[in-house]
Write a structure and sequence with these properties.
By secondary structure, the chain is an alpha+beta fold. It folds into three domains: about 55-290, Peroxidase, domain 1; about 305-415, Immunoglobulin-like (Sandwich); about 420-520, Immunoglobulin-like. The protein contains twelve helices and 23 strands. It has helices at about 30-40, 65-80, 105-115, 125-140, 170-180, 185-195, 230-235, 245, 255-260, 265-270, 275-290, 500-505; strands spanning about 1-5, 40, 200, 220, 305-315, 320-330, 340-350, 355-360, 360, 370, 375-385, 395-400, 405-410, 415, 420-425, 430, 435-445, 455-465, 465-475, 480-485, 485-495, 505-510, 515-520. Strands 2, 5, 6, 9, 10 and 11 form a six-stranded antiparallel beta sheet that branches. Helix 2 crosses helix 4 and helix 6 crosses helix 11 (about 275-290). The longest helix has 16 residues, at about 275-290. The two termini are about 25 Å apart. This is Peroxidase. It comes from Diplocarpon coronariae. InterPro entries: Ccp1-like, Haem_peroxidase, Haem_peroxidase_sf.
Length: about 525
C-alpha cells in the first residue's frame, strides 16, 4: 500500500462531483483486518472462512466442528477476565495457557494454528479471536456480531479461572460475575456457546465414556449443527441429550446447574427463536468486547464502498517513467455488479496537472470477491505515467450502465499515492536459502529526500510452547545507492532466518512520507 502523509489533497481539476459516505478514510490501520474480514473467497481472497464452511466442517476428525471450537477458544481466552480489576478479557493470553487442565483438548491449539497465518504487525491475535466468533456464529446461521479492533495481545499467561463442568452453582456464578455477567447473562452465554458443538470423550471420558450421541466418542449439546435455540427447547421439553444435562456422570451436569440457576426462567425465554438470537447477539458481543483496562476499541469495522488494493509504483531503468499498478475493489452487495459499466481513476500529478486512467475488470474468479456478508468486483490498474510529474492522488469514478456516474473521493481527501518514496521491487531481492536475507530498494524523489531513509520491518520468531510466533519490529537506516532520473535509490540488506523472508512485512519511511505494509514475497532471488 502506498501512503504519503504529505500528499493528501486532491487537486481542484478533479471536476466531477464527489460522493462521500460514512466509511473509513484510506489508508487505515485496519485495512488488512478489513480485507481478512470481508474477502474470504475469489479475487484477492484471504480465506478466513475456509475452516468453517459449511458450519459442520472439521479438517481434523469426524464429529468435530471447527466453528464450535472457535467459539470455545475465544470464550476460554476471555474467561479469566476480572472486570473490577480491569485485567484479562479477550487478549490472546490463552496462547500461553494451553497446557492447563481447564483448557483440555487440542481445539485451542488447532484454532491458534489456523489464526497464525493471519497474524501480522497490523493484526493482533486477540482481534482475530473476536473475528472467529463473528464468523462462526454467522456461518452457522446466527446473528451478525459487530467486530471492533484495537485489542493488544498479552505477553504472558493470565490467572486460572475458566469455569469447569464439575463446579457448583456458587463457584460458577462467581466466575461469571468476575467476567462481568449476571445470572441471566451467564445462562444466556452458556446456551449460546453450546448451541453448536459438544463434549469429546477423549478429553472428558466420564462424560462421554462410549461412542456418544454423535458417534466418534463425541456427544453433542443438541440435535442440530446450527446456531439455533434447540439447546434451550430440548432442555425445556425434556428431550435433551446434552451430556452436561443428562450425561452418565451426574457430577458433570454444569449446563443443568447453570440453566436452572433462576428456576429455568431465562432458559425458557430462550425457547423463543427471536429472543434467542437477540440475546445471543448481546452477550456474545459483550464477551468479545471485554478487554483489559486502557484498551480502547475502534468503531465496528465496516467494508469500504471503494478500496484501492496493492497500489504500487515502479521506476523504469532509465528513470523516465513510472509503472502504476494495483486494483480497485468495488462493493456490490447492494449495487448489482452488472450495473457497473466501467471504473476510471481521475488523478492529480505532482505539478497539479490532471489525467484519467482506465481500469479493466479482473479476470481471475471473474473479478469477484465474496465474504461472510458482502460481495465485491475488482478492477485492475496497469499504466505508465511520466516520472517527472508522477501521481499525487486520485478519485474513483464509476459509470453505471444507465449513464449515471458516481465519484468516490476518500471522504474528501482523495486516495493518496506516495510518489515521494516507494518500494522498487525490481531493484530488491530475497535469499530463500542460507544465508537468508532480503535486500530492499526504495526510490526516493530527489526533491523530497529526507535527512534519513529508514526501513521499518516486522518478522516472526517462533516461541517455545506457543503455537503463534512473536512479531518483532526493528528499524534500520537505508543507504544511498544511485540516482535514476528524478529519484535516488536507497538500499539495505536485512539478515533473516528460515521462514522470515516470505512472512516479513515492512514500511519505507522518508521524513513524513511512507510506503506502507509491503512484503518481499514477489522479490526476485538475489544473484
Amino acid at each position: 500500500m502506498l501512503y504519503s502523509s504529505a500528499a493528501r489533497a486532491v487537486g481542484a481539476c478533479l471536476f466531477v462531483a464527489a460522493t462521500t459516505l460514512a466509511v473509513p478514510t484510506w489508508p487505515d490501520k485496519n485495512d488488512e483486518f478489513e480485507q481478512i474480514m470481508y474477502v474470504s473467497a475469489g479475487y484477492a481472497r484471504r480465506g478466513f472462512l475456509d475452516f468453517i464452511s459449511p458450519c459442520s466442517f472439521s479438517d481434523v476428525g469426524k464429529g468435530r466442528i471447527n466453528a464450535a471450537e472457535w467459539i470455545r477458544t475465544a470464550y476460554h481466552d476471555m474467561a479469566t477476565a476480572d472486570v473490577d480489576a480491569g485485567t484479562g478479557g479477550l487478549d490472546a493470553s490463552l496462547m500461553f495457557e494451553t497446557e492447563r487442565d481447564e483448557n483440555v483438548g487440542d481445539a485451542v491449539n488447532h484454532t491458534f494454528g489456523f489464526l497464525a497465518s493471519f497474524h501480522c504487525s497490523q493484526v493482533s491475535v486477540a482481534d482475530l479471536l473476536a473475528l472467529t466468533v463473528q464468523a462462526a456464529v454467522k456461518m452457522c446461521k446466527g446473528p451478525l456480531l459487530p467486530v471492533r479492533t484495537g485489542r493488544v495481545d498479552a505477553t504472558e499467561a493470565g490467572p486460572y479461572g475458566v469455569p469447569k463442568p464439575h463446579e457448583n452453582i456458587t463457584a460458577l456464578t462467581e466466575k461469571f460475575v468476575r467476567q462481568g455477567f449476571n445470572t441471566s447473562e451467564m445462562i444466556e452465554l452458556v446456551a449460546c456457546g453450546h448451541t453448536i458443538g459438544g463434549v469429546h470423550g477423549v478429553d472428558f471420558p466420564t462424560i462421554v465414556p462410549d461412542a456418544g450421541n454423535a458417534g466418534f466418542n463425541i456427544s453433542r449439546f443438541d440435535s442440530t449443527t446450527q446456531f439455533d435455540n434447540a439447546v434451550a427447547t430440548e432442555y425445556i421439553n425434556g428431550n435433551t441429550t446434552n451430556p452436561l444435562v443428562v450425561g452418565p456422570d451426574p457430577t458433570m451436569h454444569s449446563d443443568k446447574v447453570v440453566f436452572s440457576a433462576d428456576g429455568n426462567v431465562t432458559i425458557k425465554a430462550l425457547t423463543d427463536p427471536d429472543v434467542f438470537q437477540e440475546r445471543c447477539a448481546s452477550v456474545m458481543t459483550k464477551m468479545i468486547e471485554t478487554v483489559p483496562a486502557g484498551i480502547v476499541l475502534s468503531e465496528p469495522i465496516l467494508p469500504y464502498e471503494v478500496k484501492p488494493n496493492l497500489i504500487s509504483l515502479e521506476l523504469s531503468n532509465d528513470g523516465s517513467n513510472l509503472t502504476f499498478t494495483g486494483h480497485i475493489r468495488v462493493r456490490t452487495t447492494v449495487r448489482p455488479a452488472a450495473q457497473i459499466k466501467n471504473v476510471t481513476l481521475l488523478y492529480t500529478d505532482l505539478d497539479g496537472g490532471c489525467g484519467t486512467i482506465a481500469t479493466k475488470m479482473a479476470t481471475f474468479s471473474g473479478g469477484s470477491s465474496t465474504g461472510l456478508t458482502d460481495n465485491f468486483m475488482n478492477y485492475e490498474i496497469s499504466t505508465v505515467i511520466p516520472a517527472s510529474t508522477a501521481i499525487k492522488s486520485f478519485n474513483v469514478s464509476i459509470t453505471n450502465t444507465n449513464g449515471t456516474v458516481e465519484t468516490y473521493d476518500n471522504n474528501g481527501v482523495g486516495f493518496p499515492v506516495s510518489s515521494p518514496i516507494f518500494l522498487s521491487s525490481t531493484r530488491s531481492c530475497k535469499r530463500t536459502n542460507e544465508p537468508y536475507s532480503m535486500t530492499v530498494a526504495a526510490a526516493v524523489r530527489e526533491d523530497y529526500t529526507a535527512d534519513d531513509v529508514q526501513l521499518v520491518y516486522s518478522v516472526p520468531f517462533n516461541r517455545q510452547g506457543v503455537i503463534i510466533p512473536l512479531i518483532k519490529t526493528e528499524t534500520t537506516a537505508m543507504t544511498f545507492n544511485s540516482t535514476v532520473g528524478p529519484y535516488d535509490i536507497y538500499t539495505v540488506t536485512v539478515p533473516l532466518i528460515s521462514g522470515q523472508v516470505i512472512e516479513a512485512t515492512f514500511d519505507l519511511v522518508a521524513g513524513d512520507n511512507m510506503d506502507y505494509f509491503r512484503n518481499a514475497a514477489k522479490f526476485p532471488e538475489c544473484k
